[in-house]
Amino acid sequence: MLPQFNNTRDGIFAAAKLVEILVETKEKLSDLVAKLPQFYSVREYINIKNVNLNTVINQVKDAIISEGYDVTQIHNDLRFGQGNEWFVLIHPSNTEPILRIISEANDESLAKENLLITAEKVKLVIENYKSRGI
To answer: What is the distance of C-alpha 45 from the center of its chain?
Structure first.
């Protein structure tokens, strides 16, 4: 994804961009890939049936900010992290009542830890939302 061009995943655009990079650098794809840092990705899905998505997203965002993180919000997606070391993305599905939580980090245990912490935070917000009947 290149948000300055298009905010959605686009395989054809990604392939064209990759070809452009290969032509400009005159390198093999394997050489370019070898230069990339290794990241680990883990994900979890949380059911959000019978909740108001906007309310839950706002409450999750407030909870993350209260812990001192800068949160970027695009529509209902939330993203936070620490520089190039790690990030967490909270993304509601467009086709089913779930939140996808995706954690990536340059260390596998850090990716898993951030996922677990964030998922628990989201579950608590949803539980509180449902118990108050908002």
So the answer is: 12
Class of the CATH-defined domain 38-132: alpha beta
Q: Which residues of 86-119 are buried (b: 16+ CB within 10 A; e: fewer)?
A: bbbbbbbeeeeeebebbbbbeeeebbeebbeebb
List, for residues 12-61, the tens digit of each pLDDT value. Answer: 888 988 999 999 999 999 999 999 889 999 999 999 999 999 999 999 99
pTM exceeds 0.85 for this model = no
What is the spatial distance between Cα 128 and Cα 54, in angstroms, rounded to a whole number? 15
Cα(100)–Cα(53) distance, rounded to whole angstroms?
Answer: 13
Could you tell me the residue ranges of all domains in the chain? 1-36, 38-132
Single-letter amino acid code for the residue at 15? A
